[in-house]
Amino acid sequence: MKWVKGSVIALVALVLVVVVALATWEPFFAEEGEAPPYREYTAEIVRDEYGVPMIYGDTDADVAYGVAIAHAQDDFFTLQDVVAMSKGRYAAIAGEEGAQFDFVYHLLDARGTAQREYPSLPADTRALFEAYAAGLNQYAADHPGEIKLAKLFPVDGEDVAAGFVLRQPFFFGLGNVIGPLVAGEELRREFGPDIPGFPRDGETIEPSAPDIMEQADEQASARPLVLPAGEDAAHLGSNAWAVSPEKSGGPTTLISNSHQPLRGGVAWYELGVQSGEGWHFTGANFPGSPFPFLGHNEDLGWTNTVNRPDMADVYKLEMNEDGTQYRLDGEWRDLESKTVTLPVKLGPLTLPIRRTVHRSVHGPVIENDNGFFAVRYGGMGSVQQLDAYYRINKASTLEEWQGQIARMAIPSTNFIYADREGNIAYVYNAAIPDRPEDVSANWRGILPGDRSELIWDGTVEYEEIPRVVNPASGWIYNANNEPFTAAGAGSDLDPEDFSPVLGIERKQTNRSRRAYRLLSDAETLDRAALERIKYDSAYEREGYVDMLFDQLETLEADGELAEARDLLLTWDFTADNEGRADALALLLIRDFMGAEYNNTEVPDLREELQDAVDHLNEHFGRIDPPMSDLLRLRQGDVDLPLDGGSDTLRASTTWDVDEDGRLSLRHGDSFIQWVEWPADGGRVSSRSIQPFGSATTRPESPHFTDQMQLYVDHRLKPVRFWPDEVRAAATSSITVTNAR
Which CATH number belongs to the domain containing residue 269 in this structure? Predict the structure, then answer.
């Protein structure tokens, strides 16, 4: 029996060796990053009473170095996730969900794009990114106990650029194309008007695809593809307003009301910057950026909302028998293929999951049960957005700002603009593909991949996209709606003036309908009027809301379901925490809104209503609890009631269902900034708010929850922009440097 005992010991030892290997291989497998070439940086970080940093430096690069350190002081936890994404190693932190990000990282060739294009950026832009990387490295070196993943640092400017390449396409909905192709779902297109040869909104194009983690790897299989960045796929949202001094009766006003997740890699971080080279700006960025993406400087400001033009085309490739070549213009070409390793963390183990990614001259290629499909999208293969964002931060006039936007370097998002001269503007910014209009093609369907004339190059000219400058109405807004309702009757653009091949969306949201009506009805849009509009919590009975209530009026039910139906029919269409039906409506309405917005199947009303009734009864013992008991803003030990709905101007868009049945806000009103330039030419001032505070992942910080009550009460705090204001309100000031 000794040999049996010895065999068991050997087997146990072998298992232990395998377990240890799977638990430790990933850091050894990962390539060691390179730090940027040494350059000395010095920055001062001054924080106000809410912990919001203003970063000072002699040069822009000094400031960027300080931006990285200030942000890491508040949220190094999330910054590391973003760095891991930029290196294709996020699955080693986040497991199966992270594998989705890493697969897309390789599919889109984020690293290859950064390697090819980053060196061509202007020297001062690269200097900004190298300095930002140096700041991340400095913080990591000084705080080794906070590091999640070995060999994640050092990073350089190319790493930061790769993160931009990965995340930006998903703001215009690339995930709605790639996701179905890799997940076996129907591909739905939701752009443009009905025109000959174009499917109507909601029509399916072609079914596809097994999941990216095939059944052979059941233990490490991934969920359906999720967006690596951008707003919640089913509930996109943001609001923005600009008002001229003639319409406000006072200052030129810009209101930024972006709706982003309240935590994570695309949650807003508020900051200000000022350098000796003329960079002076306050606003907010996402983790992984050396500059603000929105806000204002002394002379002008802007904000953004997500737009979703048809920015991606799908081609079906004609392949040879062994799947190694595709036909183009009658000739066979080799399909580029490479095998990549996704380090997928499962409990204490990290499994090396091998996947093959493909590429053709069209772009990334996805293989599924129906064949090989190539995807080409606006902004593909470019990193010029890094330079364009930097330049608009430092623009001082409408002409200078618009000149940078006209580069079409920033792939997507609406821009709403205002300045000290009283100008207001709206730009439907999008690097829309320059599709040939003189060829026969269904650009919203599956295109034949064997015709090179369908492989467009570059984007349309700036003059071809919708934009409104200084409308007669005196106001501009966007709430993720089509660009043809932006400035009121007599000032709006005519959709007939724009080519259908552009694929401009034709969508309205409830927020859009409400804003358009309230703005149009107002004689004066002063601060009080704009506050009423911004925090409006009502629904128009149009679109999906009208459809839902038409169904309710004819729904046959008895017992408690009939009671719930009748209660909803008394609802005042306002999510203000005052009506008995508010909680029930909140639970019911979101999925109907998502179905309309995303062209998905309309939910079954009876099932949805029953689920809502069951939830309220289980957790509250009644179907009519106060909505404020149901919807909460929660962080740490702070637990506050909320108002607003999934598609109201006061936005409480999506939530997590906690164990006690309460809905903890996850995505909705996030960073709000209200900017005013006085009509008399005085200096700009602004106010802002965040849902939690400036240090969202630091429970020990006083700024973990210190803005929550203000947020719930519809109040804003002062923004410290001018040096005298910054110094007067300063609660701390530190100088950071990497000097040797």
Answer: 3.60.20.10
Domain that holds residue 11: 1-30
285 phi/psi in degrees, rounded to 5: -130, 180
| Bridge partners, 349 (sequence order) | 346
Nearest Cα neighbor of 477 from 536, 410, 437 is 536
Contact yes or no for 108/84 (Cβ under 8 A): no
In angstroms, the CA 38 to CA 739 distance is 10
Distance CA 710, CA 707 (A): 5
Residue 197 burial (C-beta neighbours within 10 Å; 0-12, 13-18, 19+): exposed
- Please give the helix or strand (H or E) that residue 609 lies within, else none: helix 605-620
Query: pLDDT under 50 in the chain at which residues?
Result: 190-235
CA separation for the pair 629, 409 (Å, rounded): 46
- For residue 367, the cross-strand partners are 372
> What is the domain count for the chain?
3
What does the pLDDT look like over 15-25, one tens digit per residue? 555 555 555 66
Those residues with Cβ within 8 angstroms of residue 338's Cβ, 6 or more apart along the chain or in another chain: 356, 357
In whole angstroms, what is the distance from residue 24 CA to residue 125 CA? 37
CA-closest candidate to residue 496, choices 506, 511, 488: 506
| Domain C-terminal end among 679, 709, 734 | 679
Q: What angle is formed at CA 613 by the lines to CA 590 and CA 546, rounded to 5 degrees?
A: 40
Q: Is residue 81 part of a domain?
A: no
For residue 421, the surrounding DSSP H or E stretch is: none
Full-model pTM? 0.92
Domain assignment of residue 618, yes or no: yes
Measured CA to CA, the distance from residue 278 to residue 491 in angstroms comes to 36
CA atoms of 593 and 542, how far apart (whole Å): 11
Give percent of the chain above pLDDT 70: 89
